[in-house]
C-alpha cells in the first residue's frame, strides 16, 4: 500500500521527451517499491518557476525536483561549475562516472544538504547540439557570432571565445533565429531542436555538440529523505542510476534518427568539429573554470575535485 | 465619478469630447502614506522610460556595432519588474485596481461602507501573509547556509544581484501595502467615503 | 504559526470539492467588489494555508517574483507607454481623421480600420494587454467621438486587441510549441490563416451590423471637404505609418527581437511628438505615470491568476483534470469536444498561462494518441484562448480595457458588448474543428 506520496517538479515541459522519461522513472519507482512510494512528476513551471525549485524543495513545498543544476548558479557559483564545466565532457558516461565514483555525489551533497536538500543521483540529456544559421567549423568561426546562451559558464566561455552572447529566454529563441536577431543558439539536444523546428530556420547545426552537457540532478527535501526507510532510499538511488542510462540511451538513439532524417532531407548541413578545434575550445573553457572557481569556496572545492578526477582519468 | 476637487481633469489637448478620463491621485482615504506612495511613483515610472532607452541602445549596439552588452536585457527586466511590483501598490493607494462592481454598485451606501472596510482588511491580512512569506524568501536570497551574507545573483555572465534585490523590494512593498490597507480600512470605517458616490 | 491551526484542513475536501469550493470562493469574492487581483491572491492564500499550512505561502511570493521578472512582459509597459504618449499628443486624433477620409463612405469604416490596425499591431507583438490598452486609449474615444455604437466600439477594441496572440508571432503558440514539442515555425504558419479568418469575421460582423442598422456606425459627413484640406488631413497618416514601418521593419528585417521592437515603437512615437512640436517633459511624465498605474493593474491581475494556478497544481489539479478524461469515451470527437468544453470553462476563471500549464500536460498526449495533428491542435488551443480573453467573469481583455476606458463605461458594459464577438470566436473554433485544412495541415 502507498506509504509515501511525493511531488517532483521537472525542468521540462510536458510534451518534451525528457519529461516522458522522467515519468517512466517515477512509474518504475512505484513498481519497485510495491506501490509504497508514489511520485507525481509535474512539468516545468506548474508549481514554481524552473529557477525557484531549489527553494521550494528546501521549504518542503515540493518534495523533490529533477532539474538542470545550472539554474542555481546565482545561489552559488559552485552550482554553475559542477553543472556545466563547458568542454570537460565528451561523453555522458564520463560525467556520470564522475558523479558516481569520482567525488561528484559527495560534492553535490556538500552543496545541497546545508540548503535542506539531498542529492539522490544525476542524469543528463547528453551532449547538446549547437544551433546555427552560419556554417561553423571551428573556434575561429565563433568570432562576432551573435548567439543566445543561457546564464552561467556557457555564456562566459562563448564570450571568451569571441562570440557575442545574448541572454534570451528559451521562448524567444525560435523567433529571434527566424528573424536574424541571433545567428546561433545554445539550446538542447539535436532531436529536440529538430522537433521544435529550430533547424528549419538555422540550417547549420553542429553535431555532436562541443559546448555543453548539463548535469541534471535528482534531489529531494532532506528531512523527507531522512525519514525514508533504507530500502526505499536504496530503490531511489538505484533507480536513478538506471534512469541516467535510460535517458542517455534513448535520447542518443533519438538524436541518431533525427540526424539521419536531417541528412536525408538535404537542406540541413550538419557540421562536426575536428578534434583539434574541440581541444581549442576546451582550452578557452578551462581558463574560465578557474575564474569561476575563485568566486566562492565551494566553487574552488568543485574545481579541485573536478580537475583531480579529469587528470586521473587522463581527460585533461 | 469621484470628487473633482481631488482629481483635476487632465488637459486632453484637442481631444475635449473624449476627456472623461482623469489623472488619478491617491484617494483621500489612503492618508499620508497613500500620498507618499503616489509621489514616489515617478521614480518607477521613469524606470520604465529608462528601460525603453536601454532596449533601443542595445538594438543599436548589436545591429550597428555588433557589440551587444551583457547587461541590457537583465537591467530592462529588473526595471520593469520593480515597476510592476510598485504599480500594484500605486494602484492600491489610488484605488484604481479593477473591481467587479455588479453588486457593489446596487447596495445601499451603508452596506458599501462595510464592504469597503472588510475588503481592505482582507487585503491587509493577505499582504501581511505575503510579507511574512517574503521574509522566508529573502532569508534564502541574502544568506548562505552557513549564515554569512551573500546576495543571490542571476548567474549570468554579468551576474548582478537582481534576484535578491527584487525579493527584498517585494518584501518592502508587501509590508507597505499591508500598512496602506490598514489606513484605508481605518478611514473607510471612520466613514470618509459615506458622503461621496463611488463610480 | 500554530494559532492558524483551526482544527480542520481544506485538504479533507478532496480535490473534487476543493476545486468547486475554489470556484465558488472566487465568484463570491469577485461579487463583493474586491479588487480582482486581490480576489485571486486571497483565494490562493486561503487554499495554501488551508491545504498545506503557512510554511507553503512562499509558493505565492515565488510566483509573484517569477511573474514580474519574465522577459516577455517587458513589451507590456512599452505598448502602454506608446499608447499613453499617442493619447496625449494629437497623433491619434489626426490618424483617425485621416482614416475617416480613407474609409470614405463605407459604413463602419472606422471600426473596420481599427480591426485592420489591430491586425498590424498583432503582427508586431506576441502578447495581449498592451494592444487592448493601446486601442482602448486611441481607437475607442475616436469611435465614440464619431458616433459609433458604444457596444460595437468596445467589442471591436477588445476582440481586435486580443488578436496579438492569434496572429503570429504569438506567445501562446510559442509556449504551446515548447510544451508539446512541435515546431514553432509550423505553428506560426498554421495560425496565420485562422488569425486572419477571425479578423475577417469581425469585419463581416461590423459590416452586417452597420448596414442593417445605420445608426450603429454613422457615415461621415458628406464629402464636401476641399481637396487641399484632404491632403492636410492625410498628413496625419504619415507619422503613424512611419512608426509602424519602423517597428515591423525592425522585426522582419532582423534588427530587433519582438520585445525590443516594442521599445522601438515607443521611441518612434516620441520622435513623432517632437516633430509635431507637441513634446514636453510634462507629457512624458504623465505618460510614464499612467503606464505605471496601468501596468500595475494589468500585471497584478496576472500575478494573482498565476499564483492561483500554482496552488491548484500543487493541490493535484493536473491529476484531477486528467482523471476527468479517464474512460470518457472511445470517440475521438467526443473527447475533443469535451476538451473544448474544459478549455471554455477554465477560460472563464483563469488566464491562458494557467490554462496552458494545467491542461497541456494532459491534452497533448491524448491528442497525439487519438491521431490528431498536434500543430492543428495548437492553433485550436490558441483560438480557444481568444475566447478566454473575452469571457466573463475572468476576461483579461475586458479588464485591460476597463483600466483605460472612460469612467462611465463599466465592466458590465464591456462584458455585455463582448457576447457577439465571443460567438464569432466560438464559430471560428467550430470551423477549425470541422475544416482542419484551414491550418494548412
Ligand atoms: Na502576434
Ligand atoms: Na475568460
Automatic annotation (TrEMBL), chain B:
Protein's name according to its UniProt entry: TRAP transporter small permease protein
InterPro entries attached to this UniProt entry: DctQ, TRAP_DctQ
Membrane is among the record's keywords: yes
PANTHER family: 2,3-DIKETO-L-GULONATE TRAP TRANSPORTER SMALL PERMEASE PROTEIN YIAM (PTHR35011), TRAP TRANSPORTER SMALL PERMEASE PROTEIN (PTHR35011:SF10)
Keywords noted in UniProt: Cell inner membrane, Cell membrane, Membrane, Transmembrane, Transmembrane helix, Transport
UniProt membrane topology term: Multi-pass membrane protein
Residues of the Tripartite ATP-independent periplasmic transporters DctQ component domain: 52-187
Domain of life of the source: Bacteria
Statement: the UniProt record of this protein carries the keyword Cell membrane: yes
Localization (cell): Cell inner membrane
GO cellular component: plasma membrane
Matches recorded under Pfam families: DctQ (PF04290)
GO molecular function annotations of the record: transmembrane transporter activity
TM stretches of this protein: 42-65, 71-93, 114-135, 168-189
Coiled coil (residue ranges): none
Gene Ontology biological process terms, A to Z: C4-dicarboxylate transport
Task performed by this protein: Part of the tripartite ATP-independent periplasmic (TRAP) transport system.
First and last residue of the signal peptide: none
Subunit structure: The complex comprises the extracytoplasmic solute receptor protein and the two transmembrane proteins.
Major localization listed first in the record, in broad terms: membrane
Protein family membership: Belongs to the TRAP transporter small permease family.
Organism: Stappia sediminis
UniProtKB/TrEMBL annotation, chain C:
Listed GO CC annotations: plasma membrane
All residue ranges annotated as the TRAP C4-dicarboxylate transport system permease DctM subunit domain in the record: 23-438
The organism's place on the tree of life at top rank: Bacteria
Sorted UniProt keywords: Cell inner membrane, Cell membrane, Membrane, Transmembrane, Transmembrane helix, Transport
ATP-binding as UniProt keyword: no
Topology of the protein relative to the lipid bilayer: Multi-pass membrane protein
Transport listed as a keyword: yes
Transmembrane segments: 20-52, 64-86, 115-140, 152-176, 188-208, 237-255, 261-279, 291-315, 335-363, 375-398, 418-438
GO molecular function: transmembrane transporter activity
Localization terms from the record: Cell inner membrane
Function: Part of the tripartite ATP-independent periplasmic (TRAP) transport system.
Subunit structure: The complex comprises the extracytoplasmic solute receptor protein and the two transmembrane proteins.
PANTHER family assigned: SIALIC ACID TRAP TRANSPORTER PERMEASE PROTEIN SIAT-RELATED, SLL1103 PROTEIN
Recorded family membership: Belongs to the TRAP transporter large permease family.
Protein name per UniProt: TRAP transporter large permease protein
Source organism (scientific name): Stappia sediminis
UniProt lineage: Bacteria, Pseudomonadati, Pseudomonadota, Alphaproteobacteria, Hyphomicrobiales
Amino acid at each position: 500500500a502507498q506509504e509515501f506520496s511525493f511531488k517532483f517538479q521537472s525542468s521540462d515541459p510536458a510534451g518534451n521527451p525528457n519529461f516522458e522519461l522522467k515519468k517512466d522513472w517515477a512509474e518504475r519507482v512505484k513498481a519497485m517499491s510495491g506501490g509504497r512510494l508514489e511520485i507525481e512528476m509535474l512539468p516545468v513551471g506548474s508549481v514554481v518557476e524552473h529557477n525557484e525549485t531549489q527553494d521550494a524543495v528546501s521549504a518542503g513545498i515540493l518534495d523533490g525536483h529533477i532539474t538542470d543544476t545550472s539554474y542555481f548558479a546565482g545561489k552559488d557559483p559552485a552550482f554553475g561549475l559542477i553543472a556545466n564545466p563547458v568542454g570537460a565532457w565528451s561523453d555522458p558516461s564520463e560525467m556520470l562516472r564522475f558523479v558516481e565514483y569520482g567525488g561528484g555525489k559527495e560534492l553535490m551533497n556538500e552543496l545541497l544538504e546545508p540548503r535542506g536538500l539531498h542529492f539522490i543521483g544525476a542524469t543528463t540529456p547528453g551532449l547538446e547540439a549547437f544551433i546555427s544559421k552560419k556554417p561553423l567549423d571551428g573556434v575561429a568561426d565563433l568570432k562576432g557570432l551573435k548567439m543566445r546562451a543561457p546564464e552561467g559558464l556557457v555564456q562566459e566561455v562563448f564570450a571568451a571565445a569571441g562570440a557575442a552572447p545574448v541572454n534570451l529566454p528559451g521562448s524567444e529563441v525560435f523567433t529571434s533565429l527566424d528573424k536574424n536577431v541571433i545567428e546561433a543558439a545554445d539550446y538542447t539536444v539535436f532531436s529536440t531542436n529538430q522537433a521544435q523546428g529550430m533547424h528549419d530556420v538555422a540550417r547549420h547545426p553542429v553535431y555532436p555538440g562541443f559546448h555543453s552537457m548539463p548535469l541534471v540532478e535528482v534531489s529531494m527535501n532532506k528531512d523527507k529523505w531522512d525519514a525514508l526507510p533504507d530500502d526505499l532510499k536504496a530503490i531511489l538511488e538505484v533507480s536513478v542510476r538506471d534512469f541516467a542510462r535510460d535517458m542517455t540511451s534513448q535520447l542518443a538513439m533519438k538524436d541518431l534518427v533525427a540526424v539521419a532524417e536531417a541528412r536525408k532531407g538535404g537542406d540541413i548541413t550538419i557540421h562536426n568539429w575536428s578534434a583539434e578545434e574541440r581541444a581549442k575550445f576546451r582550452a578557452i573553457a578551462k581558463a574560465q573554470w578557474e575564474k569561476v572557481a575563485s568566486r566562492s569556496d565551494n566553487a574552488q572545492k568543485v574545481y579541485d575535485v573536478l580537475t583531480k578526477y579529469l587528470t586521473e582519468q587522463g581527460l585533461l | 465619478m469621484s470628487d473633482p476637487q481631488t482629481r483635476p481633469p487632465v488637459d486632453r489637448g484637442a481631444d475635449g469630447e473624449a476627456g472623461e478620463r482623469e489623472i488619478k491621485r491617491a484617494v483621500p482615504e489612503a492618508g499620508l502614506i497613500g500620498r507618499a506612495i503616489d509621489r514616489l511613483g515617478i521614480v518607477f515610472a521613469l524606470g520604465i522610460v529608462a528601460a525603453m532607452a536601454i532596449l533601443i541602445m542595445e538594438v543599436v549596439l548589436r545591429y550597428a556595432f555588433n557589440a551587444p552588452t551583457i547587461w541590457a536585457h537583465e537591467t530592462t527586466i529588473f526595471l520593469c519588474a520593480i515597476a510592476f511590483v510598485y504599480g500594484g501598490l500605486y494602484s492600491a493607494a489610488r484605488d484604481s485596481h479593477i473591481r467587479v462592481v455588479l453588486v457593489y454598485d446596487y447596495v445601499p451606501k451603508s452596506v458599501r461602507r462595510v464592504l469597503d472596510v472588510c475588503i481592505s482588511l482582507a487585503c491587509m491580512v493577505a499582504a501581511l501573509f505575503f510579507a511574512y512569506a517574503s521574509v522566508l524568501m529573502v532569508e534564502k536570497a541574502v544568506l548562505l547556509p552557513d549564515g554569512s551574507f551573500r546576495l543571490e545573483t542571476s548567474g549570468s555572465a554579468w551576474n548582478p544581484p537582481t534576484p535578491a534585490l527584487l525579493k527584498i523590494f517585494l518584501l518592502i512593498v508587501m509590508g507597505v501595502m499591508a500598512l496602506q490597507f490598514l489606513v484605508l480600512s481605518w478611514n473607510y470605517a471612520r466613514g470618509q467615503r459615506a458622503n461621496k458616490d463611488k463610480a | 504559526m500554530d494559532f492558524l491551526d483551526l482544527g480542520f484542513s481544506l485538504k479533507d475536501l478532496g480535490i473534487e470539492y476543493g476545486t468547486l469550493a475554489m470556484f465558488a470562493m472566487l465568484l463570491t469574492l469577485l461579487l463583493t467588489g474586491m479588487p480582482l487581483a486581490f480576489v485571486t491572491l486571497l483565494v490562493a492564500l486561503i487554499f495554501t494555508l488551508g491545504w498545506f499550512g503557512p510554511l507553503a505561502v512562499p509558493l505565492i511570493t515565488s510566483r509573484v517574483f517569477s511573474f514580474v521578472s519574465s522577459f516577455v512582459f517587458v513589451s507590456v509597459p512599452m505598448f502602454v507607454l506608446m499608447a499613453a504618449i499617442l493619447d496625449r499628443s494629437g497623433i491619434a486624433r489626426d490618424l483617425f481623421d485621416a482614416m475617416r477620409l480613407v474609409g470614405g463612405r463605407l459604413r463602419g469604416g472606422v471600426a473596420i480600420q481599427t480591426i485592420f490596425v489591430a491586425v498590424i499591431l498583432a503582427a508586431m507583438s506576441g502578447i495581449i494587454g498592451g494592444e487592448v490598452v493601446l486601442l482602448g486609449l486611441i481607437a475607442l474615444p475616436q469611435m465614440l467621438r464619431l458616433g459609433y455604437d458604444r457596444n460595437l466600439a468596445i467589442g471591436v477594441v477588445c476582440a481586435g486587441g486580443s488578436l496579438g496572440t492569434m496572429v503570429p508571432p504569438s506567445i501562446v503558440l510559442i509556449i504551446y510549441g515548447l510544451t508539446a514539442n512541435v515546431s514553432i515555425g509550423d505553428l506560426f504558419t498554421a495560425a496565420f490563416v485562422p488569425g486572419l479568418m477571425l479578423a475577417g469575421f469581425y469585419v463581416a460582423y461590423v459590416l452586417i451590423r452597420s448596414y442593417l442598422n445605420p445608426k450603429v456606425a454613422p457615415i461621415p459627413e458628406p464629402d464636401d471637404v476641399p481637396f487641399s484640406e484632404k491632403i492636410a488631413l492625410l498628413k496625419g497618416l504619415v507619422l503613424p505609418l512611419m512608426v509602424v514601418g519602423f517597428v515591423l521593419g525592425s522585426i522582419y528585417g532582423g534588427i530587433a527581437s519582438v520585445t525590443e521592437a516594442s521599445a522601438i515603437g515607443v521611441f518612434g512615437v516620441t520622435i513623432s511628438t517632437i516633430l509635431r512640436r507637441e513634446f514636453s517633459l510634462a507629457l512624458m511624465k504623465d505618460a510614464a505615470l499612467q503606464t505605471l498605474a496601468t501596468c500595475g493593474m494589468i500585471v497584478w491581475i496576472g500575478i494573482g491568476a498565476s499564483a492561483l494556478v500554482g496552488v491548484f497544481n500543487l493541490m493535484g489539479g493536473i491529476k484531477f483534470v486528467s482523471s476527468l478524461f479517464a474512460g470518457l469515451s472511445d470517440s475521438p470527437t467526443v473527447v475533443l469536444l469535451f476538451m473544448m468544453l474544459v478549455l471554455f470553462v477554465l477560460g472563464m476563471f483563469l488566464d491562458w498561462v494557467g490554462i496552458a500549464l494545467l491542461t497541456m500536460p494532459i491534452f497533448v498526449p491524448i491528442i497525439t494518441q487519438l491521431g490528431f495533428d498536434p500543430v492543428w491542435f495548437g492553433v485550436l488551443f490558441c483560438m480557444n484562448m481568444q475566447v478566454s480573453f473575452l469571457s466573463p467573469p475572468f476576461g483579461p481583455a475586458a479588464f485591460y480595457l476597463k483600466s483605460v476606458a472612460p469612467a462611465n463605461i463599466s465592466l458590465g458594459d464591456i462584458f455585455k458588448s463582448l457576447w457577439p464577438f465571443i460567438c464569432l470566436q466560438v464559430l471560428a473554433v467550430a470551423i477549425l474543428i470541422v475544416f482542419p485544412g484551414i491550418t494548412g495541415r
